[in-house]
Amino acid sequence: MPKRFLTSESVTEGHPDKVADRISDAILDALLQEDPNAHVACETFVTTGLVLVGGEISTTSYVDVDAVTRRVIREIGYDEPGLGFHHQDCAVISTIKEQSSDIAAAVGTAMEARDGQPHDPYDTVGAGDQGIMFGFACADTAELMPLPILLAHRLTQRLTEVRKLGALTYLRPDGKSQVTVDYENGTPLRVNTVLLAAQHAPDADQATLQRELTEAVIDPVLGRWLDDDTLVLVNSSGRFVIGGPASDTGMTGRKIIADTYGGFGSHGGGAFSGKDPTKVDRSASYMARYVAKNIVAAELAREAELQLAYAIGRAAPLAVNVNTNGTGAVPDEQLRDAVIEIFDFRPAAIIETFDLLRPIYEPFSAYGHFGRSDVAAPWEETNRVENLKRAVG
Hints:
Blueprint: E1 4-11, H1 16-34, E2 39-47, E3 50-58, H2 65-76, E4 91-97, H3 101-108, E5 131-138, H4 147-165, E6 171-184, E7 187-200, H5 206-222, E8 231-234, E9 250-251, H6 256-259, H7 280-297, E10 303-310, E11 319-323, H8 332-342, H9 347-354, H10 385-392
Parallel strand pairs: 3-4, 7-8
Antiparallel strand pairs: 1-6, 2-3, 2-9, 5-10, 6-7, 10-11
């Protein structure tokens, strides 16, 4: 492969879109804590002084949307006057309604089980929507994630950590990163360019930001990937005092590329946050990552992309496809047959495999859903490696 420059970006939990994602997932977790069978599709909109929570929820429990929302905003760091968005002063409006009875019926009784005959329990839960979902893995890193998105997330996590520890007192919650990696023959060689944007107090000057953020955030994270020719840009727009929902609206699901693989592989378009695991946008994407990661961990390919397709109300996927982009040790068709033999892609089976009816989702609302080492993610396990090796002979 020729020389290429590949780029990914990440944003902090204080970015307005991520504030919205975190509120949606926090409400989901609060519901699952009391009612594991809750059906949740919760979306959030934030702007200056306002949080609007909407969506469709069916549950036997109750969640105090106002209290959860304000707790999330406070923990993110919008707890100081003058930021234009404050956990105590913002208005919180809930327009949540009950899930459509038609959708509830389709999910509760899959089409495979509608003939009234005894069925495999995994045939009883239908997919919560139609659509296509993707999973990806590659041999760039120990986490089997593309290097640019892994580094971009680590930069925003480090930026948040430094802020919350009080190491750089002028930092505020909003922030972004972007990393461009120089690849040659499919192998990452070095970081070509790194961008870091950090919201700051009005009295912080550009020279201080450049020096201290490079020392406290960029150098510790990027380490050996930097060299003398790496272009380092800190707050390239200049002043970044107004940030978060005071500077821009935020909505659940607007950072789906940062949530997954940073532009590597494909994306089906469905958001994750605020959705319970009967929604295959979320659960099937987790399963697709699990399969792709096990393929690469088994050294059956240097990179693997899995595509799944579903119909609402049907348990079994309509299609399963494997693409190793020419890096496979065996033909993709053979690998696909092995995957279908080993993995069960029906929603109820996915939920059981990962024990998804638990309140585990809020930590994944920022810094990615894949390749995480700071939070337990069952879809990151590589416990099917030997099964795959045996299946392909």
